[in-house]
From TrEMBL:
Pfam families: Abhydrolase_6. It comes from Paracraurococcus lichenis. The keyword Membrane applies. The keyword Protease does not apply. This is Alpha/beta hydrolase. Keywords: Hydrolase, Membrane, Transmembrane, Transmembrane helix. Gene3D superfamilies: alpha/beta hydrolase. It comes from the Bacteria. SUPFAM superfamilies: alpha/beta-Hydrolases.
Length: 344
């Protein structure tokens, strides 16, 4: 039997390629169906606003000083509900949460870079439409880049910053190289509709542990975080794009830190396995008058593990800002400071 000749038979290789193509089509169909199922299981809880042709999903609740919560990568705006940060602020603040472009139920039009400054401009225009004036802006992880970009571009419209477990200075990031193929046009599209969701599902238990380490994953995060929503092809694309933009964005932002004049509070866990807390220490040194809190025993999800301290820091930053109150449409009058939901 001529094995070499058989291997060189063009019809044999055509058969292999056809089989691979069929498998990829089947995977794409299954992943598309899984994404649609996830969206039916997790419908939007808030409202929608259109800004520059982009449909953003957001929630706007409560009364008092406006606070804007900007989530990180791999999660959605609902992460601030799962951590209980939003709920604890509602007694004294107007709380606005966005799903950033491509996450949750917000659109992410193609062929736009969606780096930190562009996302900041989009959210600023959305805040203007919503009548939110001079909010305290809270960012977690990748969301700190957007929060900083917003404060740099619109300092007079930003009353203060609270930055949680952020990435502020360029460093060597192997994870950025790992997700880079998913950000490449065509190749990334093939991957995110076929093998990337499978890989994401298999590695998610480890990913969660790393996000929270050295603390355990909280029971509420385990119960409420939707892997199915995170593994939709649309959100995988957003996550890969942001992984590749992280280092360039930090390079663009770092020269502006010293000019920030509003109250800035910086928090990080001393055990963070994703972003070293040393970057938070460097940022505190770069921003005159900023306040730094390093939380012992906390990891990257510091707002889930040290919720009381995070909420207290937000309220302290809010108190140090100029007194401007506002009210979400349909909200009741604001409670007096020190009410049942206030944090000492």
């Amino acid at each position: 039997m001529d094995l070499l000749g058989s291997a060189q038979d063009p019809w044999t290789w055509q058969g292999v390629l056809l089989a691979v193509a069929v498998i990829l089509v089947i995977l794409a169909a299954l992943n598309t169906a899984a994404a649609q199922w996830a969206e039916r299981r997790h419908p939007p809880k808030g409202a929608f606003i259109e800004v520059d042709g982009v449909r953003l999903h957001y929630s706007d609740r409560g009364s008092g000083r406006p606070v804007v919560l900007i989530h990180g990568n791999a999660v959605t705006g609902d992460d601030y509900n799962t951590s209980d940060v939003a709920e604890r602020l509602l007694g004294t603040c107007r709380v606005v949460i966005f799903d950033r472009p491509g996450f949750g139920h917000s659109d992410r039009p193609r062929w736009r870079p969606w780096e930190a400054f562009e996302q900041a401009e989009l959210l600023h225009k959305a805040l203007v439409q919503l009548g939110v004036q001079r909010p305290v802006v809270v960012g977690h992880s990748w969301g700190t880049l957007v929060a900083l970009a917003l404060a740099i571009r619109h300092p007079s419209d930003t009353a203060g910053l609270v930055l949680l477990a952020g990435y502020y200075f360029p460093t060597l990031r192997l994870d950025a190289l790992m997700v880079a193929p998913g950000a490449i046009p065509v190749l990334g599209d093939i991957l995110r509709y076929t093998v990337s969701p499978i890989f994401g599902w298999l590695t998610m238990p480890l990913t969660k542990r790393v996000m929270f380490a050295p603390a355990p994953v909280t029971s509420r995060f385990q119960a409420e975080y939707s892997t199915a929503m995170a593994m939709r092809p649309s959100q995988i694309r957003a996550m890969c794009m942001e992984g590749t933009w992280m280092v360039p964005d930090a390079m663009r932002l770092q020269g502006h830190y010293g000019a920030l004049a509003m109250p800035v509070t910086i928090m990080a866990g001393d055990g963070d396995k994703i972003v070293s807390h040393r970057l938070s220490e460097r940022l505190a040194a770069a921003i005159p008058g900023s306040t730094l809190h390093i939380i012992s025993g906390a990891g990257h999800m510091v707002h889930h593990v040290a919720t009381d301290r995070v909420v207290a820091a937000i309220l302290t930053t809010e108190s140090a800002a100029d007194p401007i109150a506002s009210q979400a449409p349909g909200s009741k009058a604001p409670m007096a400071r020190g009410g049942a939901n206030a944090v000492a």
